[in-house]
Amino acid sequence: MIVYPIKSCGGFTIKDGEEWGLSESGLEYDREWMVIDAITGDGLNQKQEKKLCFIKTSIDLNNNLMHVMNSATGDELVIGLEEYPEKKLDEANRNEKLKIVGDVGFGEVHRNDRVEEWFTTQLGRRVTLARKTRTKDMLRSTHFRPWALQESKKQKEGGGQGRDNSHIKISFVNEAQFLLVNEKSVEVINNKLQDKGAEQFQVTSERFRPNFIVECSTPFYEDKWNAGVVLKIGGQYFESMGECSRCQMVSIDQDTGKTNREPLLTMSEFRKKEGQVVFGVHLYHKLDDVRNAEDFKVKA
Hints:
Layout: E1 2-3, E2 12-13, E3 22-23, E4 26-27, E5 33-37, E6 55-60, E7 65-70, E8 76-80, E9 96-100, E10 103-109, H1 114-123, E11 127-132, H2 146-157, E12 178-182, H3 183-195, E13 212-214, E14 230-233, E15 236-245, H4 264-268, E16 272-273, E17 276-285, E18 294-296
Parallel strand pairs: 12-13, 14-18
Antiparallel strand pairs: 1-2, 3-4, 5-11, 6-7, 7-8, 9-10, 10-11, 12-17, 14-15, 15-17, 16-17
């Protein structure tokens, strides 16, 4: 189980046997922060700013702290979990609108403080850190959810009313509260890379930025978890929202920041559906109407 406190930055693995909280938008503190362009308010990811792959994070619950480190420079920053940006004089702009992969959300933004200064220094451009707002829900409409539109279309074609998933709360993620990856499926990708003499581009499950890593009995067992299938993980229930479309970010080397053609090129040869390379399953925390759930354990 992995938590990524800052969007598009390095996360940390929950230790075997350690409990971790669930918030209304996913794993506690997962993607609760996001680096943004200090001028435009655009959220940044590794495709736009490769240096984000050097920013590593961890959460210290005992001392209520988030530790942030630049692995390339060794520079560190500590932010209190109870620390929110100071209230601005202009109350009307208290919650700034932020652009997140084409969508608009709300966050509380650090301005002219040590946090903005640290991130600006590390990335060499004027950026700052935003935190998920406490006063506005981060809601995403189905307009920005291809999986929801596909499911709705299928149901409408069958005479149904379609599904409205706009009530699901998320943080600064692109599409869903959780992402699950099957380690057996990752092994297939690595075997194909080895077969074509590209073993230097083999990856771990972490490259796909999952929250849950499971080891199913067979590769791509997860392909049968269409939208609506319910899974039981750690005593909690999660509903599938369908497959995850992958982008160039899976081909960014997290140690160097260099973008390669692999493994996305190899994945495109056997994991392309309707023009999109798909790998992994999106989930959301299901609180009601739980039936016929398939039980899985997160890999330690």
